[in-house]
Design brief:
By secondary structure, this protein is of the alpha+beta class. It contains 18 helices and 23 strands. Among the domains are: 101 residues, Immunoglobulin-like, CATH 2.60.40; 113 residues, no CATH class. It holds the Pfam family Glyco_hydro127C.
């Protein structure tokens, strides 16, 4: 298999130890609260939450219990993602009790697998004679993909082969069913995910048939005559959901054109970024230049025309999908948590294709804002949809807002997001560094230690900071012996001034910057120190003039964090607030806000409504105003203090 791209890699999780004043809280939360809570949810033990039935479905399929299938057609994937999160946690820290629970789940999964390798509780229990007949709608390959990813994570963490052997048998069955050879199904999944999984399975088995199968699924997509129409005709035109929009609307699942002919982000946002992550992963392995260009083209459209300031993507409720360029409503936004997680997957793989700052910047934006905001501070409730503006009173009777929840939910009937957040945060160590040949790219600033190998020599890079609250970041080197390699430090796009010193000596950035990274070449030895200082001014951010919904408004960002105003701090009717262009903005530490957070205090003007009267509209009214002080909090922390209004974008006026 020919690869003309410089070999890149992410570090195994057991090579990274995170010890960070910001992120360790969330990783420990995943270990101590989120994964146990989700285990209870999967077993229907959460009071007043929508039932899952996911574990019971597997027990019924395994012959251990009696009953009927319950839940969405993709309910199996929730168990698989839970197992994947467990694998990542065990890779970092052994936990015999958690491992025992996982092994028991694996025993049930293995019993539920059919003799030929097939594994899917919905079809096993409800439609055993209709396997592989509705790829467009029914998520068989999606569920298989998540099970493969969970198995690979668990195998890498524990070395236990049972679940790995299950998914190898499953993948081999899929390879027997699908392909371009006569007698095989020349089709592809409705919800992309198997592509990512096959590449991960290849990385632990080195069996190239999984790479070829991934390539088949990607290259078959969008060919005419359309596979969805062919299989629907075979079924007599039946469809699984209430209507047949998934079959008719090929763009919904990015099956409207072959992938290398697609020009823009379109359709269901999660499917889109999962597909793109699969293309990028395959391209990095094979060196396929057409696919690389496809990734670059689709990335550019998405982040320059269809992404929110928070790293959210997918602006419309219908189809959980992208809309048109620059159509980014703040109150009816969808911005599914899973979509931002998929965006991070895509960004990480683009970094492996070409280590360029813009990919890591977007990864950071999505991680610190939408993904982290998708889970409550206590780890027991979640957002599926991530709005940038909330006015709860409008939700009482306006069905346009039915999908937007002003408070996080305990669980969902379609519960893809909570376990996705868990596996994302549990695997965070894999996203801090990318290694290309003899260069370590520090793409996220998260304190801890990472172990590398250069010239057959073990090197440990230790990172310490109070990021994201300040931009002072220190690196120290430990090495068995003096070693030649390069350390590349990301200078984020939001940073207007950076300083670097190596062993106390100031380094000029002139001549060492490449694609947004400061490349420090040298021979490194134990005790060497690097200090990076990133300026973190409060930035007033404007939207592109074509974005109607941000016209005349401003948002505040400091470092990687987007800020918002919330009713808990600023009272109601936030739409009456205006932030003057010359108003003073100060950064303060609020120890009463979730253990201590940096907040922004700003001078503002608020329109007064008390003397307006009863008239709904007035000609040339004199609007009274008053000076107020606004408190902006990090967006990820909103909705942790009860029901209330929230806004990211605030009206702006020229002067106080």
């Amino acid at each position: 298999m020919k690869n003309t791209i410089s070999k890149t890699m992410t570090l195994p999780l057991n090579n990274v130890q995170i010890n960070d004043s910001f992120w360790s809280y969330y990783i420990n939360l995943v270990r101590d609260v989120v994964v146990p809570y989700q285990w209870d949810a999967l077993n229907d033990r959460i009071p007043n939450a929508e039932p899952s039935h996911a574990i019971k479905n597997f027990k019924i399929a395994a012959g251990e219990e009696q009953g009927e299938y319950y839940g969405m057609v993709f309910q199996d994937s929730d168990v698989a993602k839970w197992l994947e999160a467990v694998g990542y946690l065990l890779a970092v820290e052994r936990d015999p009790e958690l491992e025992k629970i996982a092994d028991e789940v694996i025993d049930i999964i293995a019993k539920a697998q059919r003799e030929d390798g097939y594994l899917n509780t919905y079809y096993t229990l409800k439609e055993p004679n209709n396997r592989w007949t509705d790829l467009c709608e029914c998520h068989e390959l999606y569920c298989a993909g998540h099970m493969i990813e969970g198995a690979v994570a668990y195998y890498r963490a524990t070395g236990k082969r049972k679940i790995l052997d299950v998914v190898i048998k499953l993948a081999d069955h899929i390879d027997d069913v699908f392909g371009s050879e006569p007698g095989k199904l020349q089709g592809y999944d409705g919800h992309q995910e198997i592509e990512l999984a096959l590449m991960k399975l290849y990385e632990v088995t080195y069996d190239e048939k999984y790479v070829k199968l991934c390539q088949f699924f990607l290259e078959e997509r969008g060919k005419e005559p359309y596979f969805y129409d062919i299989e629907a005709k075979k079924r007599g035109g039946t469809h699984h959901w209430a209507d047949d929009f998934m079959i008719k609307d090929k763009a919904y699942s990015q099956a409207h054109k072959p992938i290398n002919e697609q020009e823009k982000a379109i359709g269901h946002a999660v499917r889109f970024v999962y597909m793109c992550a699969g293309i990028a992963h395959l391209a990095a392995e094979t060196g396929n230049r057409d696919m690389i260009q496809t990734c670059q083209r689709l990335w550019r459209n998405m982040v320059t025309k269809q992404m929110y300031i928070t790293g959210g993507i997918g602006s419309q409720r219908h189809g959980e999908a992208f809309s048109s360029d620059y159509d980014l409503p703040n109150d009816t936004v969808y911005a599914e948590t899973c979509a931002s997680i998929g965006l991070i997957f895509f960004a990480q793989r683009m970094m492996q294709l070409e280590p360029v700052r813009k990919y890591a910047d977007v990864m950071e934006r999505a991680l610190y804002n939408t993904v982290l905001g998708g889970m409550s501070r206590d780890g027991k409730s979640f957002f599926y949809v991530n709005p940038l503006e909330v006015y709860p009173k409008a939700y009482e009777n306006n069905q346009n807002y039915d999908h937007v929840k002003p408070v996080r939910q305990k669980w969902f009937g379609c519960a893809c997001c909570p376990p996705n957040v868990a596996r994302m945060l549990a695997s965070l160590g894999q996203y801090i560094y990318t290694v290309q040949e003899n260069t370590v790219y520090a793409q996220l600033y998260i304190s801890g230690k990472a172990e590398f190998e250069f010239e057959s020599n073990r090197v440990i890079l230790e990172q310490n900071s109070n990021y994201p609250w300040d931009g002072n970041i220190n690196f120290t080197v430990q090495a068995d012996r003096e070693t030649n390699f390069s350390i590349a430090l990301r200078i984020p796009e939001w940073c207007d001034q950076a300083e670097i010193t190596v062993n106390g000596e100031r380094k000029s950035l002139d001549g060492i910057m490449a694609d947004g990274f400061a490349i420090l070449e040298g021979s490194w030895k134990t005790g060497d120190e690097i200090q990076l200082i990133l300026s973190m001014p409060v930035q007033r951010v404007k939207g592109h003039p074509y974005i109607r919904q941000t016209a005349g408004k401003v948002a505040l960002q400091r470092g990687p964090l987007v800020y918002c105003i919330e009713e808990a701090d600023n009272g109601s009717n936030l739409q009456q607030v205006m932030l003057p262009t010359d108003g003073k903005l100060e950064v303060n530490s609020d120890q009463n806000l979730f253990g201590g957070m940096q907040v922004i205090i700003g001078q503002a003007i608020k329109q007064k409504a008390e003397n307006w009267g009863e008239a709904l509209y007035k000609s040339n009214p004199k609007i009274e105003t008053e000076a107020v002080t606004l408190k902006f909090i990090p967006y990820f922390s909103w909705a942790n203090r009860g029901l209330g209004e929230m806004q990211v974008w605030v009206q702006e006026r020229e002067t106080i």
